[in-house]
Automatic annotation (TrEMBL):
SUPFAM superfamilies linked: FAD/NAD(P)-binding domain
Species name: Streptomyces coeruleoprunus
Keywords in alphabetical order: FAD, Flavoprotein
Listed name of the protein: NAD(P)/FAD-dependent oxidoreductase
Cofactor: FAD
Highest taxon of the lineage: Bacteria
Domain NADH-rubredoxin oxidoreductase C-terminal: 308-367
Span of domain FAD/NAD(P)-binding: 4-287
Transmembrane segments: none
InterPro entries assigned: FAD-bd_OxRdtase (IPR050260), FAD/NAD-bd_sf (IPR036188), FAD/NAD-binding_dom (IPR023753), FAD/NAD-linked_Rdtase_dimer_sf (IPR016156), Rubredoxin_C (IPR041575)
Length: 392
C-alpha cells in the first residue's frame, strides 16, 4: 500500500475511504464529515447536526476548512489556501459537486440575495434553519429528490411552502407519472402547494433581499425564503487546472484512475463509463473498490445499481432502475390511492429492470436483490414477486 494517500474532499466518498485506510483528508467544509442524505431531517428539526456525523477516519484527523488550490503533478504535491502543502504517492479527488444555480433574473453573478439559499451542505441547512419561522413564505424551485425533501422539511418547520417543478411531474428521474401523482397528493396533505410544468423566470429583490418569485406566465409568488434545488454539477475545477481528462466529470477507469495513474477520483465528481451518479450508494461503492485497489487488490468498479429511498413522514418510497417500460417489456402494477400505496415492476425478458414502491415497502428487499444481482428471475409469477416480503 502506498504510504502517503491524500484525499481532497471530506464528503461521503472521502470519509468512507478514510474509514478503510489511513489517509490524510483535506476537507473544505468546517464540519466533521457528515451524512448528506440526512440533511433534510436536520432542517426539519428531527436530528441535530451531531447525529449525522460519519465515523471518525483512521490515521490523521480530517483537516477541516482547508481548500486545495492546486496540484503539482510532477512533484506530486497539493497546495492549500492556508499555505500548507502535502506530498502524496496517491491522490484521491473526492471533490463532490456544487448546486446548480439557474439563470434567473435577480440572481446575477455575485452572492445570493438575502433569503435565497442553495440546499447542498450542512451550512446551507443551518442557514435555512436560522431564518425559517412558522408562517414564513418559502418557495422551493426544483421538484427532484432534493426539492421534495427540502419542501417536506420546511413544511415540518411550519413554513407556508410552494414547490415549483418545471417538469411534468415530481422526481422525474425516479418515478413514473402515477407514483408522482401519489407523491404530490401526499405533499399537499403536508401543507405543500405543488406546481408542475411551472417555469420560474426570475426573482424579485428589494434592498438586497428576495421578496417574490416570478413565473414565466407572469404569476408572482410572494416569498420570504427561496430554496434552489435544481440539481448538482460535479466539481472539476481542480482536475481541469491540473490537466486531467474531464468531460462532464473527472474521467476514471475501472480502477477509478484518472488520466494520471497516481490520481484517482470517486464520488459525485467522478465520471465512469460515461456516467455520473450523484448518489451516496455509488460514492460508497467506489470508495470500497478504491480501498481494495490501493491495498494491492484486484477489485474493479463496474458501475452502481443504486436504489433510491425516501421517507416522507407516513409515506415510504423506493425506486430503482427504469420505471417507464419499453415496447415488449412486461409490467405489473398495483395501486390503492386511498392508502397512498403503489407498486410497479418492469421486466425485460427474464430480468427485472426497474420498479417503484410506495407505502408498504415489505417487498423492496426481494426486488432490490433481484435487480442489483441482474440475474434471471425465478419462475414465480411477477405478482408473487411484487407482494412477497422477502423477510425484509
Amino acid at each position: 500500500m502506498s504510504s502517503r494517500i491524500v484525499v481532497v474532499g471530506g464528503g461521503t466518498a472521502g470519509a468512507r475511504l478514510a474509514e478503510r485506510l489511513p489517509v490524510t483528508v483535506l476537507g473544505e467544509e468546517p464540519h466533521t464529515p457528515y451524512n448528506r442524505v440526512l440533511l433534510a431531517d436536520v432542517l426539519a428539526g428531527r436530528y441535530g447536526p451531531e447525529v449525522i456525523a460519519l465515523p471518525s477516519p483512521l490515521g490523521e484527523p480530517v483537516r477541516r476548512g482547508v481548500r486545495v488550490t492546486g496540484i503539482d503533478r510532477d512533484a506530486r504535491v497539493v497546495h492549500c489556501d492556508d499555505g500548507a502543502s502535502f506530498a502524496y504517492d496517491r491522490l484521491v479527488l473526492a471533490t463532490g459537486s456544487n448546486p446548480v444555480l439557474p439563470p434567473l433574473r435577480g440572481l446575477g453573478g455575485g452572492p445570493l440575495p438575502a433569503g435565497v439559499h442553495a440546499f447542498r451542505t450542512l451550512d446551507d441547512c443551518l442557514a435555512l434553519g436560522a431564518v425559517v419561522r412558522p408562517g414564513a413564505r418559502a418557495v422551493v424551485i426544483g421538484g427532484g429528490l432534493l426539492g421534495v425533501s427540502a419542501a417536506r422539511a420546511l413544511a415540518a418547520r411550519g413554513a407556508e411552502v410552494v414547490l415549483a417543478q418545471q417538469g411534468e411531474h415530481l422526481m422525474e428521474r425516479q418515478l413514473d407519472a402515477n407514483a408522482a401523482e401519489l407523491l404530490r397528493r401526499h405533499l399537499v396533505g403536508l401543507g405543500v402547494e405543488v406546481h408542475t410544468e411551472c417555469r420560474v423566470r426570475g426573482l424579485k429583490v428589494a434592498s438586497g433581499a428576495v421578496t417574490a418569485v416570478e413565473l414565466a406566465d407572469g404569476f408572482v409568488l410572494e416569498a420570504d425564503v427561496v430554496v434552489l434545488a435544481c440539481g448538482v454539477r460535479p466539481r472539476v475545477g481542480l482536475a481541469l487546472a491540473a490537466g486531467l481528462d474531464v468531460r462532464r466529470g473527472i474521467v476514471v477507469d475501472d480502477r477509478l484512475r484518472t488520466s494520471d495513474p497516481y490520481i484517482h477520483a470517486i464520488g459525485d465528481c467522478a465520471e465512469h463509463d460515461g456516467r455520473l451518479y450523484g448518489l451516496a450508494g455509488a460514492a460508497l461503492e467506489q470508495a470500497d473498490v478504491l480501498a481494495d485497489v490501493l491495498t494491492g487488490g484486484d477489485a474493479a468498479y463496474r458501475g452502481t445499481r443504486a436504489l433510491t429511498r425516501l421517507s416522507l413522514d407516513a409515506l415510504e418510497l423506493a425506486a430503482f432502475g427504469e420505471a417507464t417500460p419499453q415496447p415488449g417489456d412486461d409490467t405489473v402494477q398495483l395501486a390503492d390511492a386511498t392508502r397512498s400505496a403503489y407498486r410497479k415492476v418492469v421486466v425485460r425478458g427474464d430480468r427485472l429492470v426497474g420498479g417503484v414502491l410506495m407505502g408498504d415497502l415489505g417487498a423492496v428487499g426481494t426486488l432490490a436483490r433481484a435487480w442489483e444481482g441482474d440475474e434471471a428471475l425465478p419462475d414465480a409469477p411477477l405478482l408473487h414477486l411484487l407482494t412477497h416480503d422477502g423477510g425484509s
